[in-house]
Amino acid sequence: MLLAELADQLVDAQNATRRQDYRCPACHEPVRLHRGRQVIPYFAHLPRNPCVIQGEGETTEHLTGKRQLADFFADWGPTELEHVLPTIQQRADVWVARTSQPVAVEFQCSPLALDGVSERTAGYHQVGCYPFWLLGNRYARQRLNWALIERFMGWLPHWELCLLFWDVRRHRLRVTHHLYQDAAGHFGGQMTVVANLATLMAGPAQVDPYPRISLNRVRYHWAQELARATPNLRRIQEFLYLRGHHLLGFPTAFGTTGSTPPVLGRGLLLWRIVFGTALFGLTGPVTPARLAPLAQDCFDLVNGHQRTVRVSFPHLIEHLQAQLVAELVQQGYLSVVPGGWRIVHRPRWRSAQLLA
User: Does residue 210 fall inside a structural domain?
Assistant: First the structure.
């Protein structure tokens, strides 16, 4: 902690002197001042008196970053370090009294489980403030992955789906923005360094188009995975095998090189393949009522998600289903009839041996 109570007044650790009567502003238990040549001044609870408000270990990065972020966000309104919210038993690293809506800045430097992020985010929403998660160096070194996206991805005007990283050493913000997932399931995004709050509000100078993938290259990598018997594709191949098909021979009609929000598990291409297979396995009328659960089951099969901690995509499956069905109608595989569609003919699967 950077602040402690002394005689009902808050004392900043950088201005404090050693004494025995400092107390935690949240739980009012005794705390001790730590300072030295190699240590940024801070207060810590005594081992026998842990705080009722859980927090991460006070690393030098975390302590320094909180002060830097209080300065960075000062143009939004008065900032307060380690603001205690007793009704939800939480302490914001930096509280910004923004006129339109208060902001709770969380500078996350240590590992934090999904439940912890969810609970803290829900708590801030409960008291009507916007949680602004910024990640430290241990996260900045990681490649884009689902754990990062599921816990910390947010949405900001101009930046759209994004992750925010604070660089204590350079005193600057890095935004990984316009996050996407290519059709094969790989995560991507554009990186922009932001020097001040005005630049953050303005958005990136340019936005690059999402890259397109090569379906031949995807088939090549899938063939390698299948040859190594890695578990990644096992459930998909089993689903197709039971219906008389092999993944590598998927029909051109199911192919795509498009991108989606980064929540589609193994990717849009696999979802289209398993959903298209399930659709053309139907007998009798093809109706929206029959397709909706099929689309959801296939979404689950590729490990898709309709929400992260901070962002939800309630109509994503419906949109993906409508898009593929419209393409199949346009290509003549389906025809529109009252109440749904009729299968005109089925897409042709290629021999996996010829593709090997």
Answer: no
Residue at 207 is within a domain: no
Two tokens, residue 326: 């419209």
Residue 321, domain member (yes or no): yes
What is the value of pTM for the model shown?
Answer: 0.89
**Selection from 133, 137, 180, 54 nearest residue 310 by Cα:** 133
Domain count, the chain: 3
Token pair 């307060």 is found at: 80
- The four Cα atoms 114, 116, 121, 127 give a dihedral, to 10 degrees, of 160
Question: Which domain-ending residue is among 52, 73, 93?
Answer: 52
Asked if 221 and 227 touch (Cβ cutoff 8 Å), the reply is: no
In sequence order, the β-bridge partners of residue 107 are 134
Identity of the residue numbered 215: L
Q: What's 80's domain CATH number?
A: 3.40.1350
Kindly state whether residue 262 falls inside one of the protein's structural domains: yes
Q: Which domain holds residue 197?
A: 58-202
Query: Which run of H or of E encompasses 32?
Result: strand 31-34
What does each of the 356 residues of the chain score in pLDDT, given as a tens digit? 777 777 777 778 887 777 777 888 777 778 888 877 777 888 888 877 777 676 656 788 998 999 999 999 999 999 999 999 999 999 999 999 998 999 999 999 999 999 999 999 999 999 999 999 999 999 999 999 999 999 999 999 999 999 999 999 999 999 999 999 999 999 999 999 999 999 999 999 999 999 889 999 999 999 999 999 888 899 999 999 999 999 999 999 999 999 999 999 999 999 999 999 999 999 989 999 999 999 999 999 999 999 999 999 999 999 999 999 999 999 999 999 999 999 999 999 988 655 55
Residue 328 and residue 247 share a domain: yes
